[in-house]
Design brief:
The structure is a single chain. By secondary structure, the chain is of the alpha/beta class. It has a single domain, classed as Alpha-Beta Barrel (TIM Barrel). About 45% of the residues lie in helices and about 15% in strands. Strands 1-2-3-4-5-6-7-8 form an eight-stranded parallel β-barrel, surrounded by seven helices. Helix 5 links the parallel strand 4 and strand 5. Helix 7 packs across helix 8. The chain is globular, with a radius of gyration of 17 Å.
Length: about 250
């Protein structure tokens, strides 16, 4: 089987912990940001907006240039459909991709198993497969509106432990839940945290947020930052400031 890409938590360099979200609407802008910041950050995230605009060819091009991509499409469907989509993500060469843990155990187990088998046969490094728990824009009230009576933190923990038991490499979770996940999950379980805002930045539509240092202290492995970097007048300076804070807690 291809070697695992899961990190050793205490050995990951500070800059590799930062994932910059390419929350833009065209390939040209995305390529400019990647060209400007590659080598200074650990990876770039491509989500629904950019993927819908530019398609898988952009993902493949960036991966083939040796840049790590977190494909943030949040797969959620019947097990066979999610498995097939997961195999296509693996063929693109992405470093990491995700699926909704609320899709259930059968979906997560089948996708994980078939991706492992495919990467083994093709001599590819298996992407990290992580589960989406509760979106960082969601509140307890919003969970109740869709019929979930648990608090956000309890729902995150329940889904994290399900993903852990199904063999996923980690989860997406807010920094508010990272400490409890770290206490309960297996040692190599990866916690990827969006909703990271430097203290000087606005929270925008995010509700469960922390600063980079607070998130790392809570147990997060990778931090996803979008607008505070890509919207900065000096992106390099914005990245350097975040990495300096990360280095203090790594």
């Amino acid at each position: 089987m291809a070697p695992s890409t899961a990190p050793l938590h205490l050995e990951t360099p500070a800059h590799e912990r930062l994932i910059v979200a390419l929350d833009v609407d065209d390939a040209g802008t995305a390529r400019t940001i990647v060209s400007e910041l590659k080598g200074s950050v650990g990876a770039f995230k491509i989500g629904l907006q950019l993927f819908t605009s530019a398609g898988p060819s952009l993902v493949k091009d960036i991966c083939e240039a040796g840049v790590r991509i977190f494909l943030d499409l949040k797969f959620h469907d019947i097990p066979n459909t999610v498995t097939k989509a997961s195999l296509e993500a693996s063929k693109l060469g992405v470093w990491m991709f995700n699926m909704h843990a609320s899709g259930g155990a059968a979906m997560m187990r089948q996708a994980t198993q078939e991706v492992e088998e495919f990467c083994d046969r093709a001599s590819l490094t298996k992407p990290l497969i992580i589960g989406v728990t509760v979106l960082t824009s969601a509140s307890d009230q919003e969970l109740r509106e869709i019929g979930i009576d648990k608090s956000a933190i309890d729902q995150v923990l329940a889904l994290s432990m399900l993903a852990n038991s199904c063999g996923l490499d980690g989860v997406v979770a807010s920094p508010l839940e990272a400490k409890r996940i770290r206490e309960q999950a297996r040692t190599e379980f990866v916690i990827v945290t969006p909703g990271i805002r430097p203290k000087t930045a606005t929270h925008d539509d995010q509700k469960r947020v922390m600063s980079p240092g607070e998130a790392l202290s809570a147990g997060s492995d990778y931090l996803v930052v979008g607008r505070p970097v890509i919207g900065a007048a000096d992106r390099i300076a914005a990245v350097d400031a975040i990495i300096s804070e990360i280095a203090q807690f790594s």
